[in-house]
């Protein structure tokens, strides 16, 4: 399935996390140019997506508050308690001097 996700900034997307939500799965994927999961590389961005009960996959590239592509690596995702309006994501900065960040994402459109 990884090859089916496509690429961002010329880098193949790979799954980083998923959460089961009834008959749907919300997932995060990141585009990181590295040889293996233990090696850091250039990050082309991240996406959030949904796999529905029929196995159909759709996703959207994450953007910052100004609408520009978000060029960080998302490694965790969970929906906020009130449902499909907000998600919480964990960003891995790949820098030992910086902690991971917990961020809130506003979900717009038909997520479910």
Task: Write a structural description.
The strands form two sheets. The protein has a five-stranded antiparallel β-sheet. Strands 6-7-8 form a three-stranded antiparallel β-sheet, with no helix packed on it. With 112 residues, it is mainly beta. Helices cover 4% and strands 52% of the residues. Strand 6 (73-79) and strand 7 form a beta hairpin.
Keywords:
112 residues, mainly beta, 5-stranded antiparallel sheet, 3-stranded antiparallel sheet, 1 helix, 8 strands
Topology:
Layout: H1 2-5, E1 7-8, E2 11-21, E3 24-33, E4 42-51, E5 57-61, E6 73-79, E7 86-92, E8 101-106
Antiparallel strand pairs: 1-2, 2-3, 3-4, 4-5, 6-7, 7-8
């Amino acid at each position: 399935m990884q090859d089916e996700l496509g690429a961002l900034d010329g880098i193949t997307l790979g799954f980083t996390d998923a959460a089961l939500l009834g008959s749907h799965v919300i997932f995060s994927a990141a585009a990181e140019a590295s040889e293996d999961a233990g090696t850091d590389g250039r990050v082309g961005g991240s996406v959030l997506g949904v796999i529905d009960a029929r196995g159909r996959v759709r996703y959207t590239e994450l953007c910052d508050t100004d609408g520009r592509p978000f060029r960080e690596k998302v490694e965790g995702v969970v929906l906020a308690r009130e449902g499909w309006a907000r998600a919480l994501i964990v960003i891995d900065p790949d820098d030992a001097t910086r902690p991971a960040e917990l961020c809130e994402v506003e979900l717009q459109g038909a997520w479910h």
